[in-house]
Structure formats: structure tokens, C-alpha cells
Amino acid sequence: MNISTITEQYIRERLTKGVRENGRGMMSFRDINLEIGKIPNAEGSAEINLGNTKVLVGIKMDVGEPMRDKPDEGSIMTGAELLPLAHHSYDAGPPSAEAVELARVVDRGIRAANIIDVKKLFIEEGKSWNVFIDLYVLNYDGNLFDSATLAAVAALYNSRMPKYEGEKVIREGNLEKLPIGNLATSCTYAKVAGTTVLDTDGSEEDFADVRMTISNDEKHVRAMQKGLGGAFTPGEVDKLVEASFEKSKELRKIIQGTRGD
Length: 261
Hints:
- The chain is an alpha+beta fold.
- The protein has one domain (3-256): GHMP Kinase, N-terminal domain (Ribosomal Protein S5, domain 2), CATH 3.30.230.70.
- It has helices at residues 3-16, 97-112, 144-157, 202-206, 234-256, and strands at 32-36, 44-50, 53-64, 75-82, 122-124, 127-139, 163-165, 168-170, 185-192, 195-198, 210-216, 221-227.
- Strands 1, 2, 3, 4, 5 and 6 form a six-stranded mixed sheet that branches.
- It starts with a helix and ends in a 5-residue tail after the last helix.
């Protein structure tokens, strides 16, 4: 019997008894430490430690052309890098399927919640601000979706907006905060050994049968993403949505607590 099989049996046996490996509740997050201003030259940045998972997010803005079908709006682009130092399975090179999924899930929650009013990114005919959200996974120990979302929203919440004057981008001086119209967070649940848990660590995530990420703001579910081959029943999904609204209250407080003016 190999180590992986022994670990799986151990985790499954404990979960069937209602106990997680580190003793926390089934619907509890690990300890969250969120810091802003980690990248000095960025418009905004944040680094999160969710348990042993560490994600760094940088926000950069530049002037570009609006999309042809949205001539009076700016744009948001999200990318993710799973750095080789973060986990032995990550390789250097083009974005992996996991990196693409991470970027898309974070991006979808931010867009759907209208955290940034893209019309306020319009400068003049033919020019608008592009907002680049770059996610860097520095250490993997489960639940990248909620980690990256929390850090990305905190980074946006604390970003300064450059000025565009005389065909030049000005990034210094008295800059106003990026206009933020909403705050959204995500909660990711997984079913392991028939037990649904929030915020899987790396060991639990390895043996999950199904995963569901729910992004919401104070009033509405804004996006949902299912992963893996298993399933949640409609009744289970309803309960997870309800749980997400409760959990998001404390997550928004964490983001709001980072505000520096």
C-alpha cells in the first residue's frame, strides 16, 4: 500500500466521522492573512495566505483601444501563473489548463459582480483603460479559487488609478482610488468521501469527487463553477448558496479592513 492510498484512507475515515485533518469545522476557512501593497510599482497588489496556500496578485493599468463592439468601455484581463516553486506538479511554460481555469473563474466573478464599472475606464474616443489582473500562485495547498479571488478583489479595492494627460500616463503624485462599485467573494466546496467541506486543503483536494465555486456579492449569486466528475443535488446546491452568503460577510470584512487611503 503506497503513501497516497494510506493518506486517502486516513482522510476519508476521519471525514466519515465528522472530523477534518486539522480539526476545523466542515464549513470553516483556514486562517486568512491578507496584506496589500506587496508590489510597489503596481497600481495595486495583495498577497494572501489561506492556510499554507499563498497567492500574490498585481493590478496594472494601461491605455489601449476599446473593443469595437464596446467603444465607450474599458477592459479587464485576468491571467494566472502556477509557478514551479509552488508545487512539484507545476511546470514553466505556457499556461496549463489549471491556470486557465483559475484565471477564468476569478475573472468571471469580478466581471459579473460589476466590481469595476468598465464605462468609467473610458478616456476619449479611441482610448480607454485596460485593467490587467495578474495572479501568481507562490505556494499550493488547496483552494486556489477563493484565495485568488479574495486577493484580486482586495488588490482592486486598494488600487490607484493613473492619470492620462497630454498623451502620457502619469503613475505618480496624488492619484485617486480606482472606482469600485461592488465587492464579491467566492466560496469553494468539495465533496470528499460523501462529506461536503469548505476550503479544501491540498490533501483533501486530491481526493475530492466534485467541486463547486460560488461567487456572490451582498445580494446576488454572480457566478458558479463546477469541477470534477461528481455531482451535487439541487438541494445541496441551495444549501451551499445559503452558506456562501453567510461566509461572504466575514470575507468582505477582511477586504474592507485592508483599505488604506
